[in-house]
Every structure is written in C-alpha cells, then in structure tokens.
C-alpha cells in the first residue's frame, strides 16, 4: 500500500525483461543486433551491420576506424545484457564511449547511460511532486522516491571511481544497490498510477521501468561478467544463477574462517547516558551524539551508549560515515521505538527504530527493538543501507519485519534476532555468522497457529551480488513460542524463507535448524512466483528441522565444491574490511 511496503500474501508485480523469454535469444546473441537506423548516416559502417562477431573481429584488423571498433566492442559487451537490443542501441548512440574503447570503457559508459537516465527520472518525479500540492500521500511518495533516487545516484557516482581503480566487487555491489533503489522508487509510485488529477505518474513509471531500470541492469550484467570472466568477452552472456548451475566463485577460492568483527577496546569519542544530569555524559540521546559527529569522515566516531532505555528514533544519514555504537550489553543498552504501518502515512522503511545510510557503521553490545506488538503488521526495529557494516553481539527484537537488511554489504556476528512473519528481509548481501534466530509468538491469539518465514530476500536481477547467508546459526523459537509449538505442532508452521522478489537468494550452511522448521522447509510467496528463478540452498545443517527428505523441489543442496562461494571473503569481501585485530 505504501512505498517500500512488503505485503503479506499480496501478489507481487515486478518489472520483467522482454528479452528474458525470447526464444531467439541464444540465436540472436551471436550477432550484433544494432540496426541500420541506429547508426544514423554512417554509411561507411554499413558492411559491418550484418556481420557475426567473429567476422567483425577479422574485419577489425583491416579497419582502423575507431567507430567500427566501438561497434565491435559494444556488441561484445552487450552480450552480458538481459536486453541486448537496448544495450547496443543506447551505447552506440551515446557520446560516452571513447574512441578505441576497451571493454572497461564500455562498462563505464553503460554506467553513465544509467546515470543520465537517472537524471531524467529524477526530473520526472520532481514534476509529480510539483503537481501534488494538496495531495499529501502522493507528495510523500514522490519525496521518498526522490530520496532513494539520490542514493541511487550516489552509488552510481561512486561506481565510476571504483571501476577506474579496478574495484570490480565494489562496483558490482554499488550498482546492485543503485538498481534496488530505482526499483523501490518505481514500486512506490504504483498506488498513484491512476490518479485522475495528473497524467504524470504512468509515463514516469514507464520510464523508470523500461529505460532506467533496464539501463542499470545492462550495466550490471557487464559488471557481473567482468567480475567472473574479466574482459574475455567471448564468455560473456546474460547473468546466470545457481539455478542455471552457475557459481561465480568456488573450489579453491578463499574459504578459511575469518575471525574478526568490531574491534575490542575502542576509545569513546562521546558518551550518551539516560536520565543523568550534571555533565556525567556528553549527550542524553543517541541521535544528538550522531548529529555531533563529523561528516564524510574516514575516522571512526565512537559513541558509547551507557546502560539505559533510549526511547527514540535514530537516523544515521549518508554523510555520517564510520559511526560506531558501543553499548553496555544486550538488554542493558536498549534503543526502542514503536512506529508501524498502522499509523497514517507510515511506511515499512520509515518505521525503523534505528535506520542507517552512512557506510562503515559498527555496533556492539546493545539491543534495538520495535515494540509495536504482534498485531501491528510491519514495524521495523533495524534498517540498514550501510555498506561494509558490522553488527556484533547485538540483539534485534520485533514482530513482523524486525530486521530490514535493505541494501549493500552487511555482517552480523553473534547477534540475536527475534520476530515472526518474515522478519529478516531486504535486498542486501547480508552475512549472518553464529547468530541466534528466534521465532516469537505472533498474533494476539497465538494458539490459533500461523505461518512464519525466517527470511524474505528480495533480488530483482540475477546480476545483483546480493543474498542472505547464514553460517553456524541456530534457528529456534523463543521459550514461549516453543511451548506453543509443542502444544500443537500441526498449526505452527515455520519456514526458512520465501521469495519476496524473483531472484531471491538465501542459504543456510552448518546451522542448527530446530524442530519448528517445517519438513517442506521453504514457503512460496504467491502461486509459483519466483520458484524457478530463486536460489534456496542448504548445506550440512543439523537438527530435526534440517531433514531434507520432504523439502520443496525448488530448494537445493549446495554442492560441496561451491560452498566457498558463500564465505565471508567471497560473498561480502570481508577479508578487505572486517577488522581481525583490535585496532
Ligand atoms: C517493464 O518493462 C518491461 C520491458 O523492459 C516490460 O516487459 C514489462 O511489462 C514492464 N512492466 C510493467 C509492470 O510495466
Ligand atoms: C553525482 O555526480 C553528479 C555529477 O558530478 C553530481 O551533479 C551529483 O550531485 C552527484 N550525486 C550525488 C548524490 O552525489
Ligand atoms: C490502475 O489501473 C490498472 C488498469 O485498469 C489496474 O490494473 C491497477 O490495479 C490500477 N491501480 C490502482 C492503484 O488502482
Ligand atoms: C562487548 O562486550 C563483551 C563482554 O562484556 C566484551 O568482551 C567486548 O569487548 C565488548 N565489545 C566491544 C566492541 O566493546
Ligand atoms: C493517505 O494514506 C492514508 C494511510 O497512510 C490513508 O488512510 C488515506 O486514506 C490516504 N489519503 C488519501 C486521500 O488517499
Ligand atoms: C531451542 O529452544 C528450546 C526451547 O526453548 C531449547 O530447549 C533448545 O535447547 C533450543 N535449541 C538450541 C539448539 O539451542
């Protein structure tokens, strides 16, 4: 009903890609499909138009023309796109591809095409906002869209620098997030598509879906291929997933256990304590301390939040980087709130008690909760868009939608996460190591029974490097839930996950799955939505709930030689940013 809302049991609608089911695709992808009209008046290029790639490369040796070279390299790179035709069209018309472009130049140009479309999209959404004075809900939706398109722009801007410096993993992570934000804006406008007082919403949505999102997906497809094959474009193809039998990294790659987390013994820059007057602490509220920190800093800003209950909404904005929250322990330092979607105008996204945007966030030894209660629907405790963030020894308590791991790379170590419905959700690449995941009683009348999913991962494009990985975790119920469960197991059904979006990806490795996990293991979203495209993997789990003999056929056992794809190093590049010493 609102931007960023994840409905229970509503049929999802997602933008799809025309090329996906095209039976001519594999046939076509051998050829450059740039049409004559697109090459404008370049008659000299005519002979090239119908050549196969190999013919074109032979031709290349005798043809010093840079434009012709670009046609070749654009065609090669666009094999990575899910929509090859738009990829070739836009790039060949674009003035961003330099003469004698290398593959990496084409990728950077593809990102620029996406950036330009983003600029156009922002203008269109601004026009909706301008036409919405007096319509509070639509104004709010348009403003939310503009916000998240700004985050998208921010990530695309960073990507160019990463590519220039060879940071392909970062580039892929950032474009994955940029795409998720664009999709978020698109879906936030859906409610207003038929408003009679403005005709602006439908064309805007059409542009976001068929130009902006497609151009970003095109760039992402190239990044995904570059990540795996480098510039050997002869191997490039639209991104594949594990369901196609494809793992980007695997046997032989770094799979050693990474020991690290929030460094111990960090010195507090400022202190926060509750109800204490007379200069004992610097601040009384967590948000005041966050606001006091420097902008765009590469140094940590350590906030020691002393024992106490902090009833406040905390936001760490984009420019507050490397903020660290240290508490006095789970259940001792508690940040609490109760916002929920039952309140007028409230969205799932905004309901978070603590919401992060700034990169490099860390927290240890505290509790974050949303107490809206079991009948309040979506009510987020913690939401994060912080790339390279670490949460250690943290507790997250809520009901529906406790932990919104919204985007980018997040590491949760030894955390305790409690909720129900599908309480760990989002579009991020989130890694859960040694966490305790607890289902809690759900409705006001909990004896009635219910279906819960532990996760709902949302990935809309197979090129996105996102997913949820659970390693060495325990999936159980709270004591109260387990006694309910054992009183009548047949009505209390719990699943490891359900697919919020088409390419949902979630794996459980060497976890303990307690009896509450239903034998079929995973739950559909709506009919057969996403069942042939998602990837739900299990490996070497123990506990009554780990028995796979009755599992749904659309879940998988991860082949042993590919388990390393889901290591901290390979999945979130943790070896490059998770501190293994106490400095
Ligand atoms: C989104 O765009 C694709 C083409 O890229 C199209 O096939 C699909 O129908 C569109 N979806 C919606 C909901 O407009
Ligand atoms: C991205 O870069 C463009 C061009 O340099 C700039 O105008 C824009 O403000 C940047 N966007 C963000 C969110 O930083
Ligand atoms: C807008 O109209 C279309 C076509 O009639 C319909 O499918 C869609 O559900 C409507 N959307 C809303 C928000 O009413
Ligand atoms: C968290 O608390 C534990 C136990 O008191 C302590 O050993 C650890 O150093 C603390 N972590 C940080 C980052 O302060
Ligand atoms: C605006 O949204 C609220 C829910 O957040 C809803 O109750 C209200 O009816 C909406 N107003 C209009 C004019 O649609
Ligand atoms: C799961 O919870 C039950 C009931 O609270 C408890 O008896 C059991 O030991 C827990 N399992 C694990 C693996 O901690």
From TrEMBL:
Pathway: Glycan metabolism; pectin degradation; 2-dehydro-3-deoxy-D-gluconate from pectin: step 1/5. Residues 1-24 are annotated as: Disordered. Its main location: secreted. Pfam families: Pectinesterase, PMEI. It catalyses: [(1->4)-alpha-D-galacturonosyl methyl ester](n) + n H2O = [(1->4)-alpha-D-galacturonosyl](n) + n methanol + n H(+). Keywords: Aspartyl esterase, Cell wall, Cell wall biogenesis/degradation, Disulfide bond, Glycoprotein, Hydrolase, Membrane, Secreted, Transmembrane, Transmembrane helix. It is found in: Secreted, Cell wall. The chain crosses the membrane at residues 31-53. GO terms for molecular function: enzyme inhibitor activity; pectinesterase activity. Residues 69-222 form the Pectinesterase inhibitor domain. It comes from the Eukaryota. Residues 7-24 have a biased composition (Polar residues). The keyword NADP does not apply. Its EC number is 3.1.1.11. The keyword Magnesium does not apply. SUPFAM superfamilies: Pectin lyase-like, Plant invertase/pectin methylesterase inhibitor. In the N-terminal section; belongs to the PMEI family. Acts in the modification of cell walls via demethylesterification of cell wall pectin. This is pectinesterase.
């Amino acid at each position: 009903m609102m931007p960023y809302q994840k409905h229970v049991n509503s049929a999802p609608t997602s933008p799809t890609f025309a090329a996906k089911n095209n039976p001519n695709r594999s046939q076509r992808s051998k050829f450059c499909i740039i049409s004559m009209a697109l090459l404008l008046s370049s008659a000299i290029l005519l002979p090239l138009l119908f050549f196969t790639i190999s013919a074109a490369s032979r031709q290349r040796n005798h043809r010093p023309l840079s434009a012709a070279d670009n046609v070749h390299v654009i065609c090669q790179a666009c094999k990575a796109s899910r929509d090859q035709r738009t990829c070739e069209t836009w790039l060949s018309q674009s003035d961003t591809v330099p003469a004698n472009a290398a593959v990496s130049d084409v990728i950077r140009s593809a990102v620029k095409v996406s950036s330009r479309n983003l600029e156009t999209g922002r203008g269109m959404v601004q026009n909706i906002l301008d036409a919405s004075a007096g319509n509070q809900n639509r104004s709010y939706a348009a403003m939310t869209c503009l916000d998240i398109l700004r985050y998208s722009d921010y990530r695309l801007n960073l990507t160019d620098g990463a590519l220039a410096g060879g940071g392909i993993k970062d580039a892929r992570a950032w474009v994955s997030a940029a795409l998720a934000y664009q999709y978020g804006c698109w879906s936030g406008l859906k409610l207003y598509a038929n408003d009679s007082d403005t005709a602006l919403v439908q064309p805007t949505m059409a542009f976001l879906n068929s130009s902006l999102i497609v151009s970003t997906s095109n760039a992402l497809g190239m990044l995904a291929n570059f990540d795996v094959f480098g510039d050997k474009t002869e191997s490039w193809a639209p991104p594949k997933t594990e369901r196609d039998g494809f793992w980007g990294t695997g046997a032989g790659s770094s799979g050693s256990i990474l020991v690290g987390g929030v460094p111990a013994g960090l010195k507090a820059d400022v202190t926060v304590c509750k109800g204490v007057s007379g200069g004992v602490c610097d601040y009384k509220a967590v948000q005041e301390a966050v606001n006091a920190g420097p902008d765009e800093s590469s140094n940590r800003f350590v906030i020691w939040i002393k024992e106490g209950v902090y009833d406040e909404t905390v936001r760490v904005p984009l420019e507050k980087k490397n903020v660290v929250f240290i508490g006095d322990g789970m259940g001792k330092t508690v940040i609490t709130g109760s916002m929920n979607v039952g309140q007028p105008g409230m969205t799932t996204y905004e309901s978070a008690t603590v919401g992060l945007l700034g990169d490099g966030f860390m927290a240890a030894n505290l509790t974050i909760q949303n107490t809206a209660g079991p009948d309040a629907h979506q009510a987020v405790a913690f939401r994060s868009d912080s790339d390279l963030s670490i949460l250690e020894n943290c507790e997250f308590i809520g009901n529906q939608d406790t932990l919104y791991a919204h985007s980018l790379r997040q590491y949760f170590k030894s955390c305790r996460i409690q909720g129900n419905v599908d309480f760990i959700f989002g579009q991020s690449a989130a890694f859960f190591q040694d966490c305790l995941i607890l289902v809690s009683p759900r409705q006001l009348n909990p004896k009635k029974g219910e279906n819960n999913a532990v996760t709902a991962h949302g990935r809309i494009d197979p090129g996105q490097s996102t997913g949820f990985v659970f390693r060495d975790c325990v999936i159980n119920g709270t004591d109260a839930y387990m006694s309910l469960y054992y009183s009548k197991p047949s009505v209390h059904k719990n699943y490891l996950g359900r697919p919020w979006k088409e390419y949902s990806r979630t794996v459980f490795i060497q976890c303990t799955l307690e009896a509450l996990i239903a034998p079929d293991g995973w739950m559909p979203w709506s009919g057969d939505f996403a069942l042939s495209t998602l990837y739900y993997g299990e490996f070497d789990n123990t506990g009554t709930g780990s028995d796979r003999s009755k599992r749904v056929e659309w879940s998988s056992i991860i082949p042993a030689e590919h388990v390393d794809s889901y290591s901290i190093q390979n999945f979130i590049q943790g070896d490059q940013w998770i501190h293994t010493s106490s400095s």
